[in-house]
Design a protein that fits this description.
Radius of gyration: 15 Å
Number of strands: 8
Largest sheet: 8 strands, mixed
Strand content: 35-45%
Distance between the termini: 32 Å
Mean pLDDT: 95
Strand order of the largest sheet: 2-3-4-1-5-8-7-6
C-alpha cells in the first residue's frame, strides 16, 4: 500500500532545464542538485514500447518535498510539448512491481516504466501509474534512495 508520507517529489516537465532552474530557484528559495544527463534513458510506454530517449533532470535538494525538473525529448513521456508544468508526484515504495500490480488491480493503468513489463512482468526501478481521474503517480524503488540522498548532499 502506498504511504503518502513517503511522497518525496513533485515532477515538473520543462522545455529548458537551465532556465527553469534559474526562474524557480531564487523565486522559491530552493537549491538545485547538479543536473543529470541521460543520453539513452530506458523507458517503456504502452504506445511506444521500450525505447531509449535523451533526458535531462535535476532536483531541489532541501527536504521534505523535492521539486524534480525534467527536460524530456519530443514524443517521450517527459516531453513538455504544449503542456509544461506539474507532471507527477513521486513516492518511495519497497516493491515497485507489487505496488504497480495492486494499482492495476483497482483500475489504474501503467503510463510508463523503466523496463518492459510485457517482456518479463517487471517494471524496473520506477513506474508511472494513473487512475481514471488522471493523477500521475511515480512509484520509485527505495533501493535507489541512497543514490538520490548522496546526489542531493553534494549540492
Amino acid at each position: 500500500m502506498i504511504d503518502m508520507r513517503e511522497a518525496f517529489h513533485v515532477g515538473v516537465r520543462v522545455a529548458d532545464l537551465d532556465a527553469a532552474m534559474e526562474q524557480l530557484g531564487g523565486a522559491l528559495g530552493v537549491r538545485w542538485a547538479s543536473p543529470m544527463v541521460r543520453d539513452a534513458q530506458p523507458v517503456w510506454t504502452p504506445e511506444r514500447g521500450l525505447e531509449r530517449v535523451p533526458l535531462r533532470f535535476c532536483y531541489s535538494v532541501d527536504p521534505p518535498m523535492h521539486i524534480e525538473l525534467v527536460e524530456g525529448s519530443g514524443g517521450s513521456v517527459w516531453d513538455p510539448g504544449d503542456a509544461p508544468g506539474t507532471h507527477h508526484i513521486g513516492v518511495w515504495v519497497d516493491d515497485v512491481d507489487a505496488e504497480a500490480e495492486r494499482l492495476v488491480s483497482v483500475g489504474w493503468t501503467v503510463a510508463a516504466c523503466r523496463a518492459d513489463p510485457d517482456a518479463d512482468g517487471t517494471h524496473g526501478i520506477f513506474a508511472y501509474l494513473q487512475p481514471p481521474s488522471g493523477l500521475l503517480v511515480e512509484l520509485v524503488s527505495r533501493e535507489i534512495q541512497p543514490f538520490f540522498e548522496a546526489w542531493w548532499a553534494e549540492a
